[in-house]
Structure formats: structure tokens, C-alpha cells
Structure prediction request, 236 residues.
Amino acid sequence: MSKKYLIFIGFLAISTAIFSQKDRVENLPTFDKRILHYGFYLGLNQNDFKLNIKENSFGVKPRNITIEPTTGFNVGLIVDMRLHKNLNLRFEPGLISNTKKIIFNALDNPKDSIREASSTFLHVPLVFKMSTDRYQNIRPYLLAGISYDFNLSSNEKNQDDNFSGEFRMKTHNFMYELGIGIDIYFYYFKFSPSIRGVFSLTNEIKFDNEANGASPWTDPINFMGTRGLFINFAFE
Prediction:
């Protein structure tokens, strides 16, 4: 499933929910006056890597390394604190699962040229939600924040490296997030579809052991960091 398809799903869900609430009686009129409220979210993601490649190293150019992402899932909880009538602070701990295939096109042997980075992250974002004033049963908003990711699948401490077929990723990472969404007020709950981008601030690659000599896998790479697209459906 491509990122364009995920974006289409997100905008379709938002548009359908908006039109279904047009000219309806105002639901949950006092919901946004609460100091604290809680919820949960479900969603899809597609992550790949942003690469910064060293020039003239092993003859590797950026196009010689290909990232093939797959679609993963998100699930988590929401704690929302009202700071102002148009500003909320949200704590959204959850789990994110995805897999990325890394293809080193400059290496001829298929056994050496393909590596998989399968990850399950404990994702802990702290996000500011900046909302417009409510119109009937809808309320658009913007999201901006930072997050800490603990890679539960990390093999950073594994002594084996790519010379033994192990592509290693670091355990601790930090990201920043930007997104848009809309609150849709139903009779019993608030539904909030959103689309957000996540971008790594830290280098996630664990370089191969120097004792094994120059590495055609990790030595050409200056920086490898996650960049991804999240489609979340929140229920509050």
C-alpha cells in the first residue's frame, strides 16, 4: 500500500465524516470544556528511511540503496489536557509496527544485498493540538510535537553485524511530528481522524564492527533516519 493510497484513505474518512455531520444538532456541547479527557487511537503507517550517503565511498551513490517500505499499524492511548480553548497538550503512548527492506544495489550477491529492518516501537509522543473554533459538529486542528521511540525489536547489542547477515538498528530514537486532522462530534463520543508525518532527529543505524574491516553496508551511510506517514483514527 503506497503513501498516496494512505493519504487518500485519510482524506476520504475525514470528508465522509464531515458531510455526515452537516446541519446536525450540536453533539457533546460541553466536551471541550473539560480540563482532562481520555481516549484511544487505531491507525496505519508507512515508514521508510531518509538516507545521507558519503560521496565516493565503495562506489555507492544514493540511488544504489533502495528502501522498500510496507504498511504497518498503530494503536495507543490518549491523555488530553486543555491549556486554552484553542490549545491542548496530548500524551499519546502506543505501539507501532512496520517492516522495511533495504536493498544494496551495488552488491551482486542477493544474500548480501538485501537486509530487513523489522521494528516494533514503543512510541511516546507529546503533541500540541491547535484547534479552530468549533463549527456545529466539526473542528479542524493542526498537530506539532516531539516523540521518543523505544525499538522493542532492536538488535543494537548483538555482536554480529552485516558480515554475519545482521543489519543493526539503535534502540533509542527521537522524532518530530507534524499533522492535520478534524474533530467530529457524535452523540456519545468524539471521532478524530488525522494525518501526520514523523521524522527522525537521530541516526538510527548501528555501524558494523570495525574489527571486521571496511563495511560495504554501513560505511557509505552518514545518516539513516525514519520518515513516515501515519493515518490515525482517534476515539475520545
